[in-house]
Structures are given as C-alpha cells and as structure tokens.
C-alpha cells in the first residue's frame, strides 16, 4: 500500500482511527449485552457509549502506553479508561484480546469488500456501456495471436462483463466467508462470557457469530477471501492484456485515453503507451502475491498461534487497497478507451479476405467437390494473398477476386455463391443470443 | 500424480480411456442435436452412437495418428471414422477442437469433484464420530503452544468439522464454477453451429452452457477451482499439524494408529512417528502449488492462446488425485486416531492446577481485594508451582494446596470458595452450545 | 511429468531402477569405507560389489516387501540380502535410512543438473548462431508494445544469450548447493558411524560431505535449487513471449518453423500458430509452481520431519523433466525460427520514418531553434504521417518528404542534414560493442 | 512495510530523499563523463555537482510538477533545473528515464543488501556464541517430533550457523546479480550516448555495466534476488520454529527472553508465549510472497514494458525492510534465548533411558544373541518403561535397572557392559568434528 496506488476511502478503513473506533464499538456493544444479562450495570454501558462516542482516541497516547505494556489491546483499554472513568472496569469482561482483534479485522474486511463491490458495479456498468456501443463493431478474432474469424468488439466486452460478473458473485461469497464475529473468551469456550454477548455484538456489527472459534476465528475463511481477490486480480490482468495488445503499434485498434497535455515521449508524437494497463498487470501480480501467505496462515498451532497476525497487518490493507485502486483504474480505462472501428476493419481486410476461406471450403464440399480437392483449390488462391501480406507487397491481391478468377472454383460455385461467403453478417448473427445470455 | 499417492477411481477419471469416451459422448450428443435441427440425418447420429458405444478406442492407434497429424482431436476423429464408417463425416460439424477439449476438462473436473465430495462426507462423518465420542474429554487448550485453559478434545473435532463443512460448501461452489459446456465454434461466435447444440450437449453431460466462450471456456473459473482445492489442502494441513503436535513425545495425547506388525524403528520400541500426518503436510503443499499457475492461466491473449493447456494437463490430475488421496488418508487418521484421555488430564495437571489461576484472581477481586494485590497473591503461589514444573522437580507443589495454605488468600476466600474455582466443569458448560451450532 | 512433456534421458534419472542402483552404490561404497576402517571384512565389501553389480534389482519384489514392512529402505536391503547372501549383514551398519535417501536425491538432482547444463549449452549455441546471423538485421525496438527506435534482431538474441548465460551460472551454483552427501546416522551425530565413511562415499559419488546434517540434509539447499529452476523457467517464458509477439499476424517478423505436412488449421492456410512458444509459456508456470513448496519444505521440525518427502517425490522429477523438455523445445524453436528481415523493415517503415523524429528534433535544437519550436515543427509533420498510419490510408505521406517540404524546418536544416538523420546505421553503431560484451 | 516491522536505516534507503539523491548522482556522474568526452562543458558538470550537492530537493515541489507532467523523471529534472540554472540543459543528454530508474533501483537494492549482510553477520555471531556456549549441552534429538537419540544444543546452533552461512553466500551472490548499471538510452542501443558514460557512472556508483540492456535492466536478475530473500526467510522460519517447539509448555527447554515488567498474561504467571518467533514465522511468509511476482516480472514484452514497476515499488521496500527487521529480531531472540540444560536432561531422562535401547540391542547381537531374540529382550524391558511414561505413572521404572534385572540379558552382557551403553558421551564424541567443519 503506497500512496501512488491508493484511494482515500479504502485507506481510511485501515487507519488507526478506524481500527480504534471499531474496537470501541465492539467493547461497547459487549457492555450492552453484559448489562442485559445483568452482569454489569446498565448505566455503566450507557456512560461508556456516551463518553466513547464523544471522544477522539489519541493515537499517540495509545502508542505510548503500548511501548510500555507491549500489548496493543491493553494500551487501548487503558486509554479508554482515561476517557470513560470509573465504569471502564466493566469493559472487556470475559473478553480475550483476540475477540476484539479478529472481529475488528472482519469488520474491516467486510467494509473493504463493500467498497470493492461498489468498484465492481462501476466497472460492470462501464463494460456494459461499451459492449452495447460496440455490439456490432466487427473486428478480427484472434487465436494464438493469429487472425482467426470475425468477432465484434462488443463480444469482447460481453466476455469481460460475464467474467467480472462472476467475480462479483465470488466477492459476495467471500464477504459471507469473513463476516463473522467471535466473542468467546480465552480458547473459545465461553467459560467467562455468555454466548449471548457474541450474538449481540455480531448482530450490532452486521456479522454472524462464528460457530466455533478457538480464541481465533479460523483462517481458512481469510485464505478463501484472499484467494478470491487473487482471482479478481487475474481477471483484471486479462482485460488489461487485451487492451495492451489492441494498442500495439501494428494493431492499434484501441488506445487508452490520452489527456490533452499528456506526452508519451518528448520526441515521438506517436508514442502513446498503454501504461495504465501495464500498470494493472503489475498490480495484479501484487494482489495475487498475498494468496500463498494467506494459505500458509491456516495451519495455526493448537487453539491458536500468532504467526498469522504480521501477515494480515500487511496483506489485508495492501491487497484491498491495491485491488480497489486497480478496479477503479480499469473502470477508467474502459470508460475512456478510444476504439478505432475503421482500423479494426482495415486490419481484418489486410489479409485480403482470407478469414472467409473456411466458408468457401465448406461451400465447395457441399457443391460436391471432394474435401481434398476443395482444400487444394482454396489454398492455391489463399497462398497468393497470404504471401503478399506476409511480404507487405503494395496493392496485394484480394482473396475474393482470386477465387472469382479461378475456373475450377467457378465450375463448382457461382459468383453469387462465392460473394455470399464473404458476408460478415454471417459471423455476427448470434451476437444477440450471447448478449441476451450475458446481459439479459 | 504418482502411484504412491493415488487412488484408482480418481486416476481413472484422468485416463486416456475416460477422456476419449467423454470426447465421443460430446460428439455423439452433438450429432443428436444436429439431427434434431435437421443438419445431419437422424440415422447417422444413431449409427454413431451404436458403433461408438460398442467400440473400444484404440489408444495406441490414436497416438500413432497424432504423431502424424500433430493434432490430438483430429487423431481421435480419424480413429472414430475408422470405427463408425461413412456417417463419420457428420461428426464434429461446426465444432472447434476446444469445444471438445474444454467441455471434456470440465466433465472430468466435475466428476473429480464428485469424488472429492464423497471423500469430504466420509471425513466429516469420521470427525463427527470422534467429536461425539470425546465431547467431554477434557484437555488443555494451548495458545502459542503454551498451556492456556481447558477445552475438550471434542471441541477440537468440532472445530475441524466446522472447517471441513465450510470446505465442502466451497467445493460445491467450485463444482458450479467449472460445470459448464462450450460448443460455440471457432472464436465462440456460433457462426457455424447453432446454440441449440451447445444447450443439448450441456444438458446431456450434466453441465450448463457457458454464457460467452471465446473458443475457450474462460479460465477464471478454473483459477477459482484450484484456489478452492488449495484452501482445502490448507485445512488438511491444519488438522494434520494438530495430530503431529499431540503425538510429540512430551505431549503424547494422541497417536496415529499403528498396525500390529508395524515398526517405527528397528531398535526403539517407543518410536511411533506421525508419518501419515507429516505426509499430509507435504501433500498439502503440493495441492497448493497449483493455485498460482492456475491464476497465471487466466490472462490468455485475445480470444485464446494455448498456454493454459500444458499447465492443466499436469495440474488437473495432480491436484485432484493428490487431494483425493489426502482426504482419504486424513479420514483414516481420524477414524483410527488413538486418544489418551488420562494423559490429557495428566498433562493438564502437570502444572499443578495453574490453569485455574485466572478464576482465583477474579474471585479475589470480587471479594474486595484490589486487583494489584490479588495478582500478587496469586502469583506468589503460582510461581512456586511453576518453578517446580519448570525444573521437573519430583513431588511438585500443588496450586490448590498452596492457596489453601496462604493466610492472605484465606482472609478473602473460604476453602470452599477456593476449591470451587478448580472445577473443570466451569470450562465445559458451553460445549453443548457449540456442538449445537456445529452439528445441530 | 507426463510423457508428452518428457525426454527419456531425464526420465531415466528418476526411474526406480536408477534409484535402487544409486542406493546400492552408496551402501557398497559405505562398505568399502567400513572395511578400510576395519569395521567389516574387506572380502564382504568385495562380495557385495560383485554380486550387486551383477544383479538386476527386482522392483516388483522390492515393492512386495515394502507392502509388508511399510519401509522402502528396509525392503531394498532385504532384497539386496537375497542377492548378496551372508555378507549382507555388513551392509548399512550405522547408517540411517535418510543417509541413503537424501544422498540419493542429491545424486539424482546433480545428474539432472548435468543434463540441464547440456541443454543450456545447446540453447546458448543456438542463440549465438542466430545472433551472429542477424547481427545487423534491423528491426524496430518496442517499448510498451509501441514502436520506439531501431534495434537489430541480433541484439534481441544477444540479450537472450546474456540472460541464459546468467541462468547457466545460476545452475552451476545450484549444482554446488545440492551436491552434498550425508552419512551421519540417526540425528546426524556420527554416534554409530565414523565421519570417514561419509567422506569416502561423498568422494566416490562426486559429492561433498554435508558439514552438519541432522539426519536430513538441510532443505534450504533444495529451496535454492528449485528457485533457480523457477528463474530459468521465467527466462524461457521471456524468450517464448518474444517469439509469440513477433509471430502475431500484424507483426509477422518471425515464425516458429512449420514442418511441410503440418497444418495449423484445416481451413485457413495462413493459420500458423506459435504453439510451441505458447506451450513453453505454460511449462514455465509449472516449473515455477514448485518454488513455493520447496520454500515451505525448509522449516522441518527439530532434527527432521518427513513432510518434505512427498513434495520432493513429485516436484523433483516434475520440475527437472519439464525444464529439460522446455529447454530442448526452446532450442529447437530458436534453431528453426523463420526470420523475415524484409517484413521487419516494412513494419518499421510503416510509420513513414517517424522513428527518426527524435534525431530531427535534436538537430533543430542544435541548429539554434528553441526546444519548444523544434518540438512543434517536428510534431506538425509527424502527425500527418501518424494519422495516415493510424487510419491505414493508402499511399501515406513519408516523414522525410514532409520535413523536406517544410520551409521552417529547411530554414534551420539543409536537405543533407535532414537526410542524414534518417540513417539507420546511426542506431547500430554500437552493436559491435554490445556483442563484444556478451560474446567476447 | 509498516512501522511496526521496520528499522529506520533500511527505511531510509527507500525514502524519496534517498531516491532523488541517487538520481542526482547518476545524472551528475553522467555529466562528468559527457564532459570528459567533450560533449558538454566541464564547467557545466562542475556547476551541476556544486549546486546539486548544496541543495535539498523539495519533494513536494517535485510531486507538484509530476501531477502536471505525469512523468516522475521529468518532474525531477525540472526541479533540478530550478536549482542548477542554465547548465541544467546539459543534464540527461542521451539518457532515457529507465537509465536513471533502473540504475537507482539497483543502487538501492545493493545498499539494502549491504545492510542485510551486516544483519547476517550479527546473526551468525550470535548463533556462534550460543553454539560454543552449549557445545556439550546434551538434549534429546527428535525426528518426527519423537525422541530419537541425544544431540547437543550446540549442534542445533551449529546447524543454524551453517545454514545462515550459506544464506550469506547466497546474499553475496544476489548482490552481484543486481549490482549493475544501465545508461544505454532508448531501447538500449547507445545510439545517443557513448558506452563510456555507462562505464563511468557504473564505476562511480559501485556497479558494473549491464552487458546488454534493452532500455531496462533484465528482470531475471531481480527475480533471482527476491528468490534469495525468500530462501533466507525460510531459514529464519526454520530456526523460529525450533524455538517455538522448545518453548512449548511440555518441552520448555528454552524460552524467548522476557523483560522484567513484561506480562504474557494478566492472570497466568506461566504464560510466556514465544511471540517473537511466531511473529518471525509470519514475516517469513510475507518475504516469500514477493518471489512469485518477481518471477512473473521477468517476461516483459519486447524491449520493455512497465508492468514490473508497480510490483517493485511495493516489493523492493517491503521485502528488504521486512527481512532486515526479521534478521535483527532473530538475532535478538538468539542472543537472549534462555536455555534450560537441566530441563533438557530431565526431558531426555523422562523416558527412563530408552534412548539407549539401540546400543543395548547392538551389544546383544555382538555378544552372539540372534537379532530376533535381542530385539525381543530389549523390547520387553523397554515396553515397561514406555508404558509408565505414556501413562505418566509416578516413580516409573528405569530402563537400565530393568535390563540389569533381566536374567536373559545378563547371560549375554555384564553389568559393566550394560552400563557402558548408557554413556551419553558416546553420542557427543564427534561434536568437535562437526564444529570444526562448521566454524573451523
């Protein structure tokens, strides 16, 4: 998490201020529940809320106490006692520190996920808009980086939409995974705290009680969470890679938006680099990097050890802040992507119509020519076109013209039949079906 | 995937025989759909089914053809034509090879998942049985590897049950992720194949149509799938680590079952090593290893490249076969784990009752002693016990006796009040609540 | 490790036959040393060598014994006793199983590394040959996928050479890491075996004694080893990616060799896909996948646990076999890569000479024009050329002509001065320097 | 990189101040070289040094310029021009931004490595001291967590020393990898800059010229670098895990130092948790996390893309700062580790001398008893001892006494012969040999 790749709202979730505020809320909700159970006086709970709500927690003071006690929760509670006064002794009764820490982490992750879900909705909206805009903008489909058959730019966007829609569903599931609360005391047996407290705090904080915690909330939940972030990062990389490819000088079918004053190079006016999507490629690697440590965090010793803690102190902010930034940046790239439909057609046509060769081949076989002969006929015309393209010859031959001029081909197929095979519409007839599946 | 860590049923899913059989079924179901659409004769489809069902595909023959054509699907289709005869020309019409390959991979993953789900059910049943058996078998809970407060062995099992129950839910979700079918032709536009064919094949194979494929089924699905296997592996590692810890010589609260003739060491009769759970720890690392390549597989170029293929040829069998083996081995470990309740109590008591110190401290404060004084009183008695334990003194002092003999303590608390704090039942009173949450 | 991506010589290293032969050699060399120390009779050692050398180890028999004893080394020793007869009782004296297993693994890794080093030498030779062949084959250099300034194809090869030369040095260092031998007995104290035995076996097997083993050879060595394989895999990916980019339809500056009969597509004659380099991209991911488990293998418990074993049984063959295959495949790709120098020039010229804009700009400033004015003058001519390129206009303007026709430019620069800036040789004048650095 | 796990000296290396100072030095050394070549006036170079050395770079001002230009190097150069005045136009001539950025990264990594090497030396010194102190402090060696045969605590330390000594050698090699300089201009051809400039800057900054750069320094170097950090992290985890195991309540052979006032728990005086080594376990995971993205950074497109940049902006500081902190923390743990030799003996003796069973067995066979009978004799005595241990019986039988009282044993061995097998010195006789190997 560095300022360059951070947005304030997500950073705020991970600030000390937010953390201490959540700690306070958990403790105060706990007091409410303890008061309901008659364990502590109702007025105490009420005072704790009033004074705590009115106060600003002094982070430097808390840090100073921690330097002494070497215990962060105790440092906070000491500071809280300074604010709350006498009723402070009713705070944290029967709690263990992990109750506060683990529940807080999950609240933070839940809030982070809510931001990521907003990001995702914006990204989906942006993709959808471009998909509809370019539903029938024909471009060449490429397998292995090689021209194959026509698709549309809208289809590319529809694919991305479907993929990020799945990512959204995964994110919702990941939110469920980590939206749990543990207030179960040392080693999680509720020996010194009633399960009703956990239920009350959980409900108040928008969480569910963890069915069985062992002082800690089990880390398979967090492993799953970070794995989902990693998958989303990979999907970001996929779309970013598509843009990078489309912007290559030789392809140039789309470009990241360039602001007016922006200069790609001090000398070469054409130098507009896909730096945003290259950056997204790198950010994806960083988000994915936290999947493995999260998986390694699962096997804590016995009821708990604390090896997970340092990992999470770094990974939780870093992964969520970076992913939030990346989703927003990708949305921006999609919204402002400059698409060149003419260039798309020109690229496709650069092969002189070769993309239609399969249909001509099939038509020949349907007209009674053997498959072997058909292939030979198509190929001898195709190769002329291909060789010219390969050598970038000026005024290269056009595949349709070659076929029309080939007597053997014409014996089997009429001019109209041949021309019919060069219909781009043939390839887009099911675009609507696919759009219905994705957006319907 | 090596024989040592493989079970035949899962291995079979990844055999060439199974693969070619699925290829055939996809092609044959496709013929049915094409026949329904009137594209090919119904009798052709019928003949294809009859002859294909009757035949055994000759893998050596297919391999020989592939060596020539360097294309596995064409090799198979050529062999199929040898079996089916003339109607073979109606096979694969409008299909692209990836339609067959990707759909087959997903069928295999789906079947593999079904086996894993069976494994998971057996593991859950085994854990539940041991949980109920040892619901109230008290043992010390350990945080940081250090004695904390009492738990029960049943609670340890309940935690494992809840964790693997989550893993089962994740596995079901992962099955949904990959149970899709693509029969959409080159670059996925359905230009040469009606979407109805995809729908029919999908339904026949137990899959859902992929909303938008681009020659390939998008790999974010598989990334998510392998990530879930990785999380399950980590949960296996957690339970395996627990057993390894419990079997340590100094702890010895449980042991992996040793068959009668088995020898841990040729010389030392006590040498029974937790080799199964150590092995599970290693296998977990292997299953997790495939998460990263699966994440790297997502960002294919444009409509597809084939970089994912070699990864999946190795990772899909290796990850599922290894996880299947690991789940079965863990089930075996749990079912046959030898638990030593007396040793558990002995270990807990080895600290002379120190685990109750917190309750005595609280009782003193409730009896009006200041917190500082209470701590001092408890500590001075506790330290005698602790020092004796640390030095492994013979006939070490017992915490209860020391407290009863401490006049300052007795001024505040009666013998009965003190004895009451040494009640183990206090710590297990909510075991039932937790069991209800987990198994209820 | 699957047959598709395996070569026999490397596979042989990991066969049971090879493994048992190394086990035998270690035991027999151990007997020699024990005989020298007078611990066992010299004739016994001699008989063991004679009978063992003459025998073929019966793997099925060994497996059968292991099924009984559940111990692989004991199974082998039992079988060896069947072969050797009475002197067998002198075998393995004071050894622990890990002495044999760990030393054998290192012998196998050392031999695997020797094969990889041969692979690397062949790859380096192939790259060097192409580098020299195309030392001055000019092509456009691309940053961010965008045309920048000219380089040569030979420079691309020189870069690859330097990178793989580093990889070779790393591989040599990795060989040093794992070429160690441990014959130190249970927990590594030499209590029951003289260090002289270890020294003798080490020397005989081409290894160095492990300074301090703890029953096992420390796994930081193997972690480093697999990390080096991972780095090599990434370098393979880099060169593979370069080829994939160069073969893109729009770029087409080079192509993987296509054998005469090979068909990229049944219908489209131009469809020659870079499937080998795509495959190499995937194989790289697999080799890299083993880095993390190898890192996780380091922290064994106390003097040893056996969690590393299952990881290595799979990772060691898989990583080395796959890397061997990948290096050989890459060598083949490089040797047979079809390079199109004319197309390279054509691509570079497609931008109408824009790649020289920086030099014109600098010349203008040197001629006294302010930097701002210079930029404006260059840009207004460049943009005409660029726009025509972007729109793929027929007969696009040529940058040199535009500049020559611009009065403001001509006020500062003569025709000769301008033409001089379009000299490709300017960009290649230090190719020789770089070649000297790399190949000198 | 968060304050909690950071040390100021390493953090400083990654500060904006340090970065801009290195940028300046690279540019200024470049000017010297250009002046020597006669490309720019000597006085200009001299003025640049004087004014630059005297100035403090204003980071806020640079940031403000970058917000406008969206280019960090241009922003710095603009600010430098404000400081230097007219001669600023001679700065950066023929440089490309990456020349500055990549060379700076390597300078920072080199300096970071120098700090890590200092850390490593301190750690090695600390380990060596403890090794010598406890050279003959006997403790039980454990394989699989189970008592095996005696070792010494010094041997444990010697193993750690040898391992970190290897890590130091790897770190030195990693330093070599990244200590290179590139001043080769756009796409690395030296078209606009003489190689002599690179050589001068390299020498001045303590680097070697990169033999062939392609605008960027190749990232296989950095991949190797981060891999080495990952291996070191794993070695840290290994030693940390050893301490965690030794501190377990049931083992308690060593403890992390506890400062006087420190409290592990507010209630339980025995609660001293190995939190430092648990923390080191987590930090290791974080350092290792950056290995995979560094491997993914290698395959940049063509002459360069910028996807590596965001990864390195986060990973380079995070990995080095965290590792620096971890090495220092581990050194502190080792230096202050409280070792309990008596407890070590007590733990070993808790099994009533069973650790000597192998030697008794061997002695019986040497005395003419068949191996089978010997095993039976040893086992029947050992099992009594073992069962008592397993059940934690009071006054458990002692193995030596049982053997001495066994008539069948005594028929073969005299009391003296039996007692002789219980000599701990037998196991430590080669400690000196091993120490010589490691420290000699």
TrEMBL record, chains A, B, C, D:
EC number(s) on file: 4.3.2.2
Pathway the protein acts in: Purine metabolism; IMP biosynthesis via de novo pathway; 5-amino-1-(5-phospho-D-ribosyl)imidazole-4-carboxamide from 5-amino-1-(5-phospho-D-ribosyl)imidazole-4-carboxylate: step 2/2; Purine metabolism; AMP biosynthesis via de novo pathway; AMP from IMP: step 2/2
Catalytic activity: N(6)-(1,2-dicarboxyethyl)-AMP = fumarate + AMP; (2S)-2-[5-amino-1-(5-phospho-beta-D-ribosyl)imidazole-4-carboxamido]succinate = 5-amino-1-(5-phospho-beta-D-ribosyl)imidazole-4-carboxamide + fumarate
PROSITE patterns assigned to the protein according to its UniProt record, in alphabetical order: FUMARATE_LYASES
Domain of life from the UniProt record: Bacteria
GO biological process: 'de novo' AMP biosynthetic process; 'de novo' IMP biosynthetic process
GO molecular function, one term: (S)-2-(5-amino-1-(5-phospho-D-ribosyl)imidazole-4-carboxamido) succinate lyase (fumarate-forming) activity
GO cellular component: cytosol
UniProt key word Lyase: yes
InterPro entries given in the database record: AdenyloSucc_lyase_C, Fumarase/histidase_N, Fumarate_lyase_CS, Fumarate_lyase_fam, Fumarate_lyase_N, L-Aspartase-like, Pur_lyase
Keywords (A to Z) from UniProt: Lyase, Purine biosynthesis
SMART domains per UniProt: ADSL_C (SM00998)
Limits of the Adenylosuccinate lyase C-terminal domain: 352-439
Keyword Lyase among record annotations: yes
Family: Belongs to the lyase 1 family. Adenylosuccinate lyase subfamily.
Name of the protein in question: Adenylosuccinate lyase
Organism: Ahrensia marina
Native organism taxonomy: Bacteria, Pseudomonadati, Pseudomonadota, Alphaproteobacteria, Hyphomicrobiales
């Amino acid at each position: 998490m560095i300022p360059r790749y951070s947005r304030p709202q997500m950073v705020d979730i991970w600030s000390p201020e937010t953390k201490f505020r959540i700690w306070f809320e958990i403790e105060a909700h706990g007091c409410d529940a303890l008061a309901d159970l008659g364990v502590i006086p109702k007025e105490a709970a009420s005072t704790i809320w009033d004074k705590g709500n009115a106060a600003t927690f002094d982070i430097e003071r808390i840090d100073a106490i921690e330097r002494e006690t070497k215990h962060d929760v105790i440092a906070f509670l000491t500071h809280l006692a300074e604010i709350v006064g006498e009723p402070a002794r009713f705070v944290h009764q029967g709690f263990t520190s992990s109750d506060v820490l683990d529940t807080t982490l999950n609240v933070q992750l839940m809030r982070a996920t809510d931001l990521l879900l907003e990001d995702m909705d914006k990204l989906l909206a942006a993709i959808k808009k471009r998909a509809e805009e370019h539903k029938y903008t024909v471009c060449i489909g490429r397998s292995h980086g090689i021209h194959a058959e026509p698709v549309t730019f809208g289809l590319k966007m529809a694919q991305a939409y479907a993929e990020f829609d799945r990512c959204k569903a995964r994110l919702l599931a990941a939110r469920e995974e980590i939206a749990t609360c543990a207030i179960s005391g040392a080693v999680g047996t509720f020996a010194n705290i009633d399960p009703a407290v956990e239920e009350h705090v959980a409900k108040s904080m928008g969480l569910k009680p963890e069915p069985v915690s062992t002082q800690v909330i089990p880390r398979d939940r967090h492993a799953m969470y970070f794995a989902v972030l990693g998958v989303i990062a990979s999907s970001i990389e996929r779309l970013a890679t598509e843009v990078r490819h489309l912007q290559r000088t030789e392809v140039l079918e789309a470009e990241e938006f360039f602001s007016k004053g922006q200069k790609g190079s001090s000398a070469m006016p054409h130098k507009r680099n896909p730096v945003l999507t290259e950056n997204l490629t790198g950010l994806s690697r960083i988000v994915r990097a936290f999947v493995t440590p999260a998986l390694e965090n699962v096997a804590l010793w016995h009821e708990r050890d604390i090896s997970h803690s340092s990992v999470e102190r770094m990974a939780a902010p870093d992964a969520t802040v970076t992913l939030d930034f990346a989703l927003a940046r990708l949305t921006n790239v999609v919204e402002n992507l400059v698409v060149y439909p003419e260039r798309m057609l020109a690229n496709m046509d650069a092969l002189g119509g070769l993309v239609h060769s399969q249909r001509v081949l099939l038509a020949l076989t349907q007209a009674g020519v053997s498959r072997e002969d058909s292939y030979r006929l198509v190929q001898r015309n195709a190769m002329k076109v291909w060789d010219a393209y390969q050598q970038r010859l000026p005024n290269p031959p056009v595949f349709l013209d070659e076929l029309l001029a080939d007597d053997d081909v014409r014996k089997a197929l009429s001019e109209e039949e041949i021309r019919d095979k060069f219909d781009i519409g043939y390839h887009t007839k099911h675009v609507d079906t696919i759009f219905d599946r994705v957006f319907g």
